[in-house]
């Protein structure tokens, strides 16, 4: 006979559909160690995006020393992402539910919607990039692909990606460990080939970047860790309530920082030797033919593992908005929308580059939000009332009709500051161009302005609560 305690312990098992959503995870279902977060985040960060970032750093003219400084400093923000995951273990629910404490029960729907929209957008982009890589791999073996063949391969990619996300947390943790080993070893194999490649014409040594260009490069690197700010607690909520906050922060940081630094460095070195306008095909002259095929597989695998994170957390954001469906159904909604967008991009009009440029502006909302969320954790010492977080009325976090003015004032001010200090391709602010000399300080401005304002406006109020 299976006891209630045993049944609860089996509720979050690999390859069984996880039934929990944003509800509080009971202590009887919590297990594991913070070091499992290393695999979750390492797998999610073995991606082509860092190759692209590294290539852009080379195009900007950074010296090797400048590149290393930018990559190390920018990716230190992964420490903040790890810190943001601590409340997941303490209270047992998702990131965008914990943020109700800062924004109010109703007010939190706004960042939840933006979080969901951003995640679904990246799901579609990853599907498109993964599909193009898959088409290239199959055609490289001499197999012609028509529209039907491409549609079938896209369908296989989507079913696998969204299928794992539907199965849920335990399956993602299990799969990320496997993908981390496989993709990580393949990525390390790129290093000796990139370093030993000798182009016909020796590349000129980069002249070095001036301060505005250096700051643009730093923002470009920092945008990657900040993009994960809205999902860290989603993967810690099954940890024991007393799990070490320092360990949660450390293992999240380490799993993200290592691949981010290594892969960005590979992209930078490769871009100094070959044209990486095509970040996949550009590696063909550098790599042995058989290894180039492995590299394409690596790109496909990275798009899948990154989408595990995007899809799972976008489902959580959708539930945090107040949608009254189960977690698997929320992910199915995401799957339909993201797949439809990828079909349009592949077969009708390729909007991928434009859409990536648009999504890059999302740091303007997420950096200020991240600052408020982190300051709220610090002010409350990580202690939250779980019942109030899930209460329809907001409980202790109801504030003025469900909206916390202090958080919204700080957030809006941070968004304005971030947009004023951006020099992104899609939006070059006059202030950034004329006053900052073209430097991009959007992430720093958003973090500092929102963080300080929230501390000033809400610090006493939270201390008295």
User: CATH homologous superfamily of the domain at 32-353 - what is it?
Assistant: Hydantoin permease
Q: Write out the strand line-up for the largest beta sheet, numbering strands in chain order.
A: 1-2
General form: globular
Give the SSE string: HHHHHHHHHHHHHHHHHHHHEEHH
Please count the beta strands (DSSP E, at least 2 residues each): 2
Which CATH architecture of the domain at 32-353 would you pick?
Answer: Orthogonal Bundle
Summarize model confidence as the mean pLDDT: 91
Query: How many helical elements?
Result: 22
Measured by DSSP, the beta-strand proportion falls in under 5%
- What is the straight-line distance between the termini? 46 Å
CATH class group of the domain at 32-353: Mainly Alpha
Which structural traits does this protein have?
Hydantoin permease, 67% helix, mainly alpha, globular, 465 residues, 2 strands, disordered N terminus, two-stranded antiparallel ribbon
Helix and strand topology:
Layout: H1 4-9, H2 36-44, H3 48-59, H4 64-75, H5 78-84, H6 86-91, H7 95-98, H8 100-103, H9 109-140, H10 147-167, H11 169-188, H12 190-196, H13 211-226, H14 245-271, H15 289-320, H16 327-347, H17 352-360, H18 363-380, H19 386-390, H20 405-420, E1 423-424, E2 427-428, H21 430-434, H22 442-464
Helix pairs in contact: 2-11, 2-14, 3-14, 4-13, 4-14, 5-14, 9-10, 9-15, 9-16, 9-17, 10-15, 10-16, 11-15, 15-16, 18-20, 18-22, 20-22
């Amino acid at each position: 006979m299976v006891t209630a305690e045993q049944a609860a312990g089996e509720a979050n098992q690999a390859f069984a559909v996880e039934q929990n959503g944003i509800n509080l995870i009971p202590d009887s279902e919590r297990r594991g160690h913070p070091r499992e977060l290393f695999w979750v985040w390492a797998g999610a960060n073995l991606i082509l995006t860092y190759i692209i970032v590294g290539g852009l750093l080379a195009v900007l003219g950074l010296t090797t020393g400048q590149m290393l400084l930018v990559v190390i400093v920018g990716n230190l923000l992964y420490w903040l992402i790890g810190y943001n995951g601590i409340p997941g273990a303490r209270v047992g629910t998702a990131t965008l539910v914990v943020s109700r404490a800062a924004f109010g029960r109703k007010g939190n729907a706004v960042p939840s919607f933006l979080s969901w929209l951003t995640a679904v957008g990246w799901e579609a982009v990853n599907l498109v990039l993964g599909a193009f890589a898959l088409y290239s791999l199959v055609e490289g073996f001499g197999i012609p692909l028509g529209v039907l063949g491409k549609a079938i391969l896209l369908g296989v990619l989507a079913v696998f990606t969204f299928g794992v996300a539907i199965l849920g947390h335990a399956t993602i943790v299990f799969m990320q460990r496997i993908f981390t080993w496989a993709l990580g070893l393949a990525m390390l194999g790129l290093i000796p080939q990139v370093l030993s490649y000798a182009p016909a014409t020796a590349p000129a040594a980069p002249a070095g970047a001036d301060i505005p260009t250096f700051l643009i490069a730093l923002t470009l690197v920092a945008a990657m860790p900040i993009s994960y700010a809205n999902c860290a607690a989603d993967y810690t909520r099954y940890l024991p309530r007393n799990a070490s906050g320092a360990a949660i922060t450390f293992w999240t940081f380490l799993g993200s920082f290592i691949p981010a630094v290594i892969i960005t460095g590979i992209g930078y070195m490769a871009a100094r030797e070959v044209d990486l306008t095509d970040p996949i095909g550009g590696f063909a002259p550098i790599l042995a033919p058989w290894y180039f095929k492995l590299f394409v597989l690596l790109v496909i695998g990275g798009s899948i593992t990154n989408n595990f994170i995007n899809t799972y957390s976008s489902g959580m954001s959708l539930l945090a908005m107040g949608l009254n469906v189960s977690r698997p159904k929320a992910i199915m909604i995401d799957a339909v929308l993201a797949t439809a967008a990828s079909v349009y991009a592949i077969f009708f009009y390729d909007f991928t580059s434009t859409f990536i440029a648009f999504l890059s502006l999302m740091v303007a909302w997420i950096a200020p939000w991240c600052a408020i969320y982190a300051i709220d954790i610090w002010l409350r010492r990580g202690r939250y009332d779980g019942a109030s977080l899930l209460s329809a009325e907001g409980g202790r976090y109801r504030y003025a009709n469900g909206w916390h003015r202090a958080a919204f004032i700080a957030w809006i001010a941070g968004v304005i500051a971030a947009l004023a200090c951006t020099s992104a391709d899609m939006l070059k602010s006059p202030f950034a161009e004329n006053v900052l000399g073209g430097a991009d300080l959007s992430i720093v401005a958003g973090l500092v302005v929102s963080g300080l304002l929230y501390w000033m406006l809400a610090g006493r109020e939270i201390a008295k609560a």
